[in-house]
Request: fold
Amino acid sequence: MRALTESQIRKSFVNASLRERNSVTLPPGFAELDWAEIDFLGWRDPKLAMVGYMVIPVDDAPSGIMLRLGGRQPRTRPQCSFCQDVQLPNDVAFYSARLAGPAGRKGNTVGTLVCANFECSANVRVRPSSIFGGDHPEAIRDQRIETLQTHLDGFARRVLGTPS
Reply:
């Protein structure tokens, strides 16, 4: 992902009001982010426990999405819809996002299961064990990164209301 400024991030939100955009709290350590190692920027708002944010590149432009944490969490351990990691070291939570434009103003939303603290980029970069990676662990890792990017793009396009 290419590096973004605070202003670019705030302007990128497609499903948030101007007031909501201006009140976004950037993630801790924002200035030290290694942009080359992430496929999207995702974080939970440290001031609003039920709010999360994702900035996903779509057609080489950032698309910011404001998310709300679902009230009830699944009783069984779900799989993240983005990284699909089966050996998750972290929790998965249900998030919903208001759709962009008129559909969102009518209250329409889309939901997904995501790593609770948006660790997907790190998860897909973990070297697979020999059981999963065989003789080509780097190829498996590259495929997982590509799959994550495809899933992120699809989710962002659903929020935007644009075809894949």
